[in-house]
Amino acid sequence: MDNFFIIIIFSLFINFSASANQIKNYTVDVDINNDGNVDKIEIFNNELYFYLNKNNTYKLIDHINDFSSDGGYSLTSVTSDTNLLKLSYSFSNSNAEKLDIYLSYDETLFLTKIIGTHSFPFDYDNRIESCTKFINKKLINKIALEEDLLDFSKSQCINEFEITDSLKDFIKRAKYESKDKLMLVSRYKKLMTLYPITKRNEYIYNNIGYFLYKKEMFKESIYILNEVISFDSNRVFALLNIADDYWFDQHKKDAYKYYLIYINLMKKLGKENKIPKYVDERLIYYKNN
Fold first, then answer.
1. Order of strands across the sheet that contains 47-54
2. Beta-carbon neighbour count of residue 221 at 10 Å?
3. Cα–Cα distance between 8 and 21 in angstroms, integer?
4. Which residues make beta-bridge pairs with 190?
């Protein structure tokens, strides 16, 4: 598709309805087809009207709904974003859930992509999930927010966090909080970016990984313990804990590998008699199955 995008080049003239957070009726001056002429988009009663300027005469080229008539979303702003027209929506006048709908133009209007953003106000680390769904389909008259358009289950999603707790706070959380307040590997990626592993804190990360393992949060635990082992390959407890993680996460081959590394290190340290009995039992089970 040629790069004919909707570009906002003049100011927005906005009339607000009785609701301060929801835009009802307004006109946007835009260059829809990138020909240098000022075109117009009119929003009236939850519908969008697109007009091309031909010799100072405006011709209606498309008429669609503004995506807010279904699902409880309200149009809050219209802006240009990297040469695309962005229609921004909030859900039921809430800032916790938002949609950004991007349109482009090439002889007709295209729905290019939708970005859904969800904030988790009760998450200790201020989690925000952003999912992008690329569509690139022609808009049809009266198009609505169909259920499949808002299905982000197969879309690329990114979780961002704003962590204010200390590492010692995280130990307490990992030990006492419920799983839903500790989930997602990306949380711990952010934590380790904020507090890089050092000789002084590697035991803290090992303990966090252990407590997550006890809660059966294997993926989160494995990520942390892998980082600990990458920093200190002789951390015996991390080796044993990650082997246990892999075992119960049904990755027996990886568990077997780390059990062997753990055993060899314990022998090297002269602590073979302190190896838990279940380790040999699992090695035998793996080799026989």
1. 12-16, 23-30, 39-44, 47-54, 57-65
2. 28
3. 22
4. none
d(CA 17, CA 26): 10
Contacts 24+ apart (CB under 8 A), 193-201: 194/163, 195/166, 195/167, 197/227, 197/228, 197/231, 199/232, 201/167
Which residue from 27, 7, 138 is spatially nearest to 81, judged by alpha carbons? 7
CA distance to 182, 240, 263, per residue, from 283 (Å): 31, 13, 11
Q: What is the mean pLDDT of residues 238-258?
A: 96
Task: Name, in order, each residue with C-beta under 8 angstroms of 19's C-beta and a sequence gap of 6 or more.
Answer: 74, 93
Per DSSP, the three-state class of 261 is helix
Would you say 46 and 65 are in contact if contact means Cβ atoms under 8 Å apart?
yes
Give the number of C-alpha atoms closer than 13 A to the C-alpha of residue 61, restricted to the C-beta side: 20
Q: For the chain, how big is the Rg over CA atoms in Å?
A: 27
Identify residue 147 by its one-letter amino acid code: E
pTM score: 0.76
- Structural tokens at position 85: 């027209």
pLDDT digits (tens, 9 = 90+) for 137-169: 887 655 555 557 777 888 889 999 999 999 989
